[in-house]
Amino acid sequence: MLDSDRSMTGRDAMRKVALICIVSALLVGCGDNEQLAISQAKKSIARMLKDPDSAKFEDVALKRSEESVDNQPIGYVCGYVNGKNAFGAYAGSVRFVAKTILSKSGAIVVDAQMDTGEDKFVPGRLETPFEMTFWNPRCVIGYDPEKYKIEPANTEASNVKWSVMLASLSSRDRAEKIKGNVESIDIPSYIKERDGVNLVYAGPFDSRSIADSKAEEIDKKIKLHGFVIRFY
Questions:
Q1: 155-189: burial string, b at 16+ Cβ within 10 Å, e else
Q2: Is residue 128 situated within a structural domain?
Q3: Model confidence pLDDT, tens digit, residues 124-151
Q4: Which of 4, 66, 169, 190 is packed most tightly, with the most Cβ within 10 A?
Q5: Range of the domain at 35
């Protein structure tokens, strides 16, 4: 069963990585290339925004990995960025990951990814594609892929309840808005936070058939497609 009460959020993980780097600097030196890696990553991510000059970064830290290229270590710069949209308003913080080659002479960003806001989970998992491919394995301390699997349920068991998974969002405000939209059509809804991400559900319901019916109703009335999972 998936542990729904993880003790460390995504932002907590970033702060812990940053603290490790600070302690390392006091003992053996984090190295100028690590600060350069963060600086280069910010520049790469900023260029991906509609208004690069508006970029505001939060909880940015470098997480070293065991990977290497030509005997040069690889690190991942993880954090949150907020930037202005086409209307000149800040759109809200999103997560990013930048793969960086570290060397004695500097740092090179070889890949940069931002959370696109895709809220559909990978089939059989409680992770979005961005989380499964980039954020969780590279930025979440102690990441265990097994904890994100959706276990098959015994549909005959009388004590099994069901929910409709609707969205996975970094913005709590957006999650609350979706929850309110679902409740406006007289369907119960709730939010769970996991690794800094807000998961929005409808339910729980006493049977799979009721959950299926509610999922169809939500899709029809508020144009929000979800899928039925066992309630945890």
A1: eeeeeebbbbbbbbbbeeebbeebbebbeeeebeb
A2: no
A3: 788 888 989 999 999 988 889 888 887 6
A4: 169
A5: 10-114
